Amino acid sequence: MPAPTRIPSVPPVSDRLLRTTALGEDVGRLKYVSGAREEALHRLGLNTVEDLLLHIPRRYLDFTHAYSIEQAPLGEVCTIVATVDRVTLKHPRPRLSVVEVSLVDDTGVLQLAFFKQPWLAKQLSRGDRLAVQGKVEFSYGFKQMSSPHYERLDERAGAGGMIPVHGVCEGVSVAWMRRIVSGALERVGDFADHLPARLRARRGVMSASRALRAIHFPRSQAEREQARQRLAYDELLHLQLALRLRNDANLLDVTPYAHTPGAHVEAFRHALPYTLTDEQDAAVADILRDMQDGSHVMNRLLLGDVGTGKTAVACFGLAAVADSGSQGCVMAPTSVLAQQYAHKSGPLLERAGVSWALLTGATPAAERADIVQRLATGELQVLFGTHAVLSEDVVFRRLSLVVIDEQHRFGVGQRNALRAKGPGADLLVMTATPIPRTLALSVYGDLDVSIIRNRPVAGAGVETKVLTEANRDIAYGAIRDAVSVGKRAYVICPMVEPTDHPDELDDVPGLDLDEDGRPRPVHLHNVVEEAERLRITFKEAHVGILHGRMSAREKDEAIAAFRSGEIDILVSTTVVEVGVDVPAATVMVIEDGERFGLATLHQLRGRVGRGGDKGTCFVMTHATSGGRRGPAQERLEALERTQDGFALAEMDLRLRHEGEILGLRQHGGVSLRFVDLDADVELIEAAHEDANELLRYASTLQSMATLPLRQEVIRRYGDVFKEVSGG
């Protein structure tokens, strides 16, 4: 009798593994999600269960510290739990509705007023128990709140003393969002954590599953903060590892250059019209030391405030390239800046025996062909240029140093495309945008950093004055005085043409608020109309324009005319923000100053006062004209107080998101959603240290202990990683 056929047993999939894989499931598979709610979640960008769980609440109604009506302190934002006694809809004047709600508890009566929300009269009923949060005021014998946040306690999902309020859209209410999130947390349960257990224990952070539960339904503010710190640590660690893995992928199978600085470097030092400062000398030493080390490719960030002489420092690296018989390339974000670098640094390099050329989109065909031919043969040692240097026909014989100015204005793919023209080439990134140390560690953590704070040639400096429309004559008087003695003036506008829409601007909105705290409509200045207006106001002056929609040739011609004096007043957008150097320019007027961040304003004012005459920057604003004091006014007051770009950057970081300061959209969508760069200094340093240690332990994170972490890094920052590494 034949033996029975044995059916191989398949071990059951562990429950924890199933819960972990559930994170990647479509939200449509969750309890409470179907039809309109699923479509609404997709509109919010919530496609998977993990997307939903990372959609953290915008705020919380905290009634772990709720006050009774009697105990609620006047003038403070409080949470009060009470019962609806009466709801009344009133129309005190045409097109204005007020819903008055009386809340009661054992200690007294609280009056609520909701303006222009008549539907609330039908949604709230006597006997409803509400948690309300708002500023407590006293009027007509009662404590009152105006348009407070409120929640019905019987709609609450989850346990604990804090009610989460998530961002929602049409099709899913706040209450339903809580139910859906609660169901998602129940589905994934205690899923596997991608962080190695030893690392979690070392840093004392929550598990990922507990952190997600606590961020949505915390039992206290302390628990919510612990959860945020775990999510912030994840963001920082993942970003650090993604940047490092990206660099490692770029540098696989390349042979680093070992440069030998010599006669050209010394000749360049003698060609400089000034002696380097101690900070510049230290930065030069950092760069040359890295370039001489043939065991690794240099990846260095040269960070310096406006006018600190970063270009001169970078040129020492270009001179070292000539000493080694190889080539260097400097890529700038605009033709104006590339041209200026070439015209200022080129003659100094030439005196040191280093050949150079400038390549932009405006370079004539014959000249371009000559440059390309000389590059290919190695006759040309240094190339200054814009995106034009990325063209396929631009081929270097031996590119060993890539210098990129204002890296955040380029995509990582563009940076890598230039490096691909010289496998193993050293990289020097320069920026005049002052970056707080915490931001440098988190966003540029893959680069070594050299910092220059002080100017080698101080210039006469610049004074900043914030003016409202009522004092415009002060700014115009300064322009008239400057032009009358042969000086120049900039007028900066946020928009190019009158047809542009303010919503298209990347910067913050104006903060001229009405009595209800809403922004008033403000007419923003544009280059085209402002130039016509100034031609009438200053009939004796020549007014020109400059903006990003002009061709490279038109921009070059405008700057040349402004520099030579053919143009007295240059009306421009922020295209002049970085690098434009016209020593005769002594006055700048920035229109709609509240539309710009501190970093941009500081860069702009650095365009005046660069010569022997003191400059004055007038910042015109609506933010101080009768409105409530807000972030815009704080920025402008700080700008008046200090010339320290790094101090301003720290303040900008507190007032604005890091992506607005550095343009992190250029990093393939990288943004830090949970990190407080001002408060999380220790967390940032810990993540930086841990990333370095992890990569020392497993250089590609492919050990058994770190493989889940590697997969999570690539999943979260895949766009950044794949764009340059191919996988």
Assigned CATH architecture of the largest domain = 3-Layer(aba) Sandwich
Q: Describe the main β-sheet briefly.
A: 7 strands, mixed
CATH class of the largest domain: Alpha Beta
Number of strands: 22
Number of domains: 4
**Continuous helix count:** 25
- The overall pLDDT average reads 82
Task: Tell me roughly what share of residues is in helical segments.
Answer: 25-40%
Percent in strands? 15-25%
Structural class: alpha/beta
Separation of termini? 56 Å
Return the CATH topology of the largest domain: Rossmann fold
Any overview of this molecule?
- Mean pLDDT is 82; it is low at 156-160, 506-520, 659-669 and 723-727.
- The radius of gyration is 30 Å and the shape is globular.
- The protein has 727 residues and is α/β, with parallel strands linked by helices.
- A seven-stranded mixed beta sheet has the order 6-7-4-3-2-5-8, with no helix packed on it.
- The protein has four domains: 59-165, Nucleic acid-binding proteins (OB fold (Dihydrolipoamide Acetyltransferase, E2P), Beta Barrel); 231-252 and 678-725, no CATH class; 263-452, 3-Layer(aba) Sandwich (Rossmann fold); 462-642, Rossmann fold, CATH 3.40.50.
- Helix 14 (412-419) links the parallel strand 14 and strand 15.
